[in-house]
């Protein structure tokens, strides 16, 4: 199924994307700063600007491009699709980061129209696959940072790789409203082909790479 539906963004959608990006950047910056009083001390001392920028470029981009990938494929299949931020969950992300852990669910792409199981599956698959592609793109950034001796570039690369591999693996879990549940309902072969490498890469990063954080 394919139509001439074009990719466009409403003003409210652009606002939601911007708010979600900034909120995620702040939440992950606080989390990586240690949360609680350590993060507050960094804010007071002006030491959160660098971590905030790193989080915008890694976690923020990883989450938002994941959602936008769902939209792009949904529109390709003739759907009316729009990202809507969940302001309550964004607030929870910031508050949880202050407590020393993080729970991030910035919102979702909602779409309407008639779809086959395959189209539903491909829309769901687009998010995790985008995260895997982003992880691959961040890998040379990591190498440039390490070989060039740039701590900032290396940190962007390492967190970009780790966060995106983790997002791919987590979202491919075949439970509830996660993408993996939709993909496995469409094709178990495709599910295994994406889920297994994502999990193995995640485990490899944490076991052999120390998480790369």
Automatic annotation (TrEMBL):
Keyword Thylakoid: no
Coiled coil: none
Top-level lineage group: Archaea
Transmembrane segments: 20-41, 48-69, 89-110, 122-148, 160-178, 190-212
Signal peptide boundaries: none
Keywords: Membrane, Transmembrane, Transmembrane helix
PANTHER family assigned to the protein according to its UniProt record, in alphabetical order: ZINC METALLOPROTEASE MJ0611-RELATED (PTHR35864), ZINC METALLOPROTEASE YWHC-RELATED (PTHR35864:SF1)
Protein name, entry field: Zn-dependent protease (Includes SpoIVFB)
Annotated organism of origin: Halogeometricum rufum
């Amino acid at each position: 199924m394919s139509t001439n539906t074009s990719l466009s963004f409403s003003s409210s959608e652009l606002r939601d994307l911007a708010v979600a990006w900034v909120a995620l950047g702040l939440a992950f910056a606080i989390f990586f700063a240690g949360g609680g009083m350590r993060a507050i001390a960094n804010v007071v001392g002006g030491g959160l600007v660098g971590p905030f920028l790193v989080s915008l470029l890694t976690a923020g981009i990883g989450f938002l491009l994941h959602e936008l990938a769902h939209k792009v494929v949904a529109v390709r299949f003739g759907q009316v699709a729009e990202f809507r931020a969940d302001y309550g969950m964004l607030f929870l992300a910031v508050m949880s980061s202050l407590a020393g852990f993080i729970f991030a669910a910035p919102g979702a792409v909602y779409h309407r129209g008639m779809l086959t199981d395959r189209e539903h599956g491909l829309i769901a698959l687009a998010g995790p696959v985008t995260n895997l592609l982003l992880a691959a793109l961040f890998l040379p950034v990591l190498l440039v940072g390490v070989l060039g001796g740039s701590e900032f570039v290396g940190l962007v690369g390492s967190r970009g790789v780790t966060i995106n591999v983790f997002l791919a693996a987590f979202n491919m879990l075949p439970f509830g409203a996660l993408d993996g549940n939709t993909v496995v309902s469409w094709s178990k072969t495709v599910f295994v082909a994406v889920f297994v490498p994502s999990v193995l890469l995640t485990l490899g990063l944490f076991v052999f790479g120390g998480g790369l954080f």
